[in-house]
Amino acid sequence: MRFPSLFSPFTIGPYQLKHRVVMAPLTRMRAEKPSLAPRPLNVEYYAQRTTQGGLIIAEASPVAATAFGSPGVPGIYSEAQIKGWRDVVDAVHARGGVIFLQLWHVGRVSHSSFQPGGVLPVAPSAVPIPELKTATAAGKSTAYETPRALETSEIAGVVHAFRQAAANAKAAGFDGVEIHGANGYLVEQFLQSHTNLRTDQYGGSIENRARFLMEVTQAAIEVWGADRVGVRLSPYGVANGSGEPDPMPLYSHVIRALDPLGLAYLHFVEPRSSGAGRAEVNHQNVPSAMGLFRPMWSGVLISAGGFTGETADAAIAAGHADAIAFGRIFISNPDLPRRLREGLPLTPYNRATFYGGDVAGYTDYPAYGELEKA
Ligand SMILES: Cc1cc2nc3c(=O)[nH]c(=O)nc-3n(C[C@H](O)[C@H](O)[C@H](O)COP(=O)(O)O)c2cc1C
C-alpha cells in the first residue's frame, strides 16, 4: 500500500479514525444570507468530503456577530446557524466521518462595515494591520482601520462568546471544537507582542499574553471535556499582519501550558505556504513548527501547510506529526484520501473560486470515479 503511515488508523480523543488525512478548516464564504447559516449546498460540500472515516475540521465560524471580517461566512451563535450546522453534521455522520468545528473571532482583521452598528472592530490593542488592504462589507477595497482596544472588563464577555459557541457546536451535534489561535486573528493578536500592548493581566509578560488563549480553551473544555477540544496555532505564520519577532519563547510557553490539559490535539499551520490569501505564496527554507515544538507536546499533533502524500507520510513515519491536514488540494479533490492511497491523479484547484460564489469551484469538483465517467 502507498503511504502506510498516513493510512494507518489512529485515535483523537474518543474517536477512532481509519487514516490520518485530515480536512483542514477552509473558509469558503458560501453560507446563506442574511442568516449566515449553513445551507443545503454546504451540506453537499461536506458530505462529498467525508471520505473513508477521516476527520474534517469545519471552516472557521465566528462566535458572535462582532467576530466577523468577511462576507458569507457561517456563524455559530444563532438558532438558524445551529440548525444549518446540524444538517452538515448529520450528513457527515451518516457517512462515517468525524467533524470538529473551528471557533473564530477575527479581532482587528475586520472592518466597521461588518460590525453591528458600524462600530470599530475590537482587538487587544489599538494597532492596525499595516500595509495590507481589506474589503468593506460592500466589497470596496480599503485600508484596515485602527481597532478599538478591549476594556479589561469586556474580555470575560468575549471568552463567554467562545463558551456559548462551543455549547452551540455541541447542540449542532459536532464531535468537538478547535480554537482558532492561528493566522493573525484575535487569539493570536493577544499572544503576539506587536499586537498586544496591554498593561493589564492580558498583556506584557508571555504568561499574560497567553491568558486569553488559556481562558478560551478552558471555556471550551468546560463544555466539551478536554479530549474533544483542539487548538490551532501558527508560530511562524505571516498571515494578516502577524509575526512574533522571536516565536520560540512565546510558543514554548503556550505549548507547555496547553500540554497538561489533555486536549484532543494540537494543530500547527506550517509557514511553508500562505495558501489562504489571494495569491499563491510558497516559502522555502522556513522553520518547521512540528519539528521544533514536537518535543514539548505529548498529545496528538496535526500539522498543515503545503503537504503532499509523500511529505505527509514521511512526517508521520518520522514521528514529527500524528496526522496531516490538507487544505487546498481537499478543495479540488473531494475524495482526496482515496486518490492519495491509490496514487490517482489530483485535480488542480482554481484559486479564483476559493472565496464566495456558489456551486462552481465548490461542489462541482468530481470524485475520481465520476471523473472517469465524464
Ligand atoms: C480557501 C482557504 C480558506 C482557509 N480558511 C481557513 C480557516 O477557516 N481556518 C484556518 O485555520 N485556516 C484556513 N486556511 C488555511 C488552511 O487550513 C491550511 O492551513 C492552508 O491552506 C495550508 O494547507 P495546504 O497547503 O494543504 O493548503 C484556509 C486556506 C485556504 C486556501
Give an overview in words.
The protein has 374 residues and is an alpha/beta fold. The chain has one domain: Aldolase class I (TIM Barrel), CATH 3.20.20. It is built from 12 helices and 14 strands. The protein has helices at residues 40-48, 79-94, 152-171, 186-191, 206-209, 211-224, 247-258, 289-293, 309-317, 328-332, 336-342, 368-373, and strands at 10-12, 15-17, 21-23, 55-62, 98-104, 122-123, 133-135, 141-143, 148-149, 176-181, 229-233, 265-269, 301-304, 323-326. The strands form 4 sheets. Strands 3-14-13-12-11-10-5-4 form an 8-stranded parallel sheet. Strands 1-2 form a two-stranded antiparallel sheet. It has a two-stranded parallel sheet with strand order 6-9. Helix 8 (289-293) links the parallel strand 12 and strand 13 (301-304). Helix 1 (40-48) packs parallel to helix 2 and helix 3 packs parallel to helix 6. The radius of gyration is 19 Å and the shape is globular. The structure holds flavin mononucleotide.
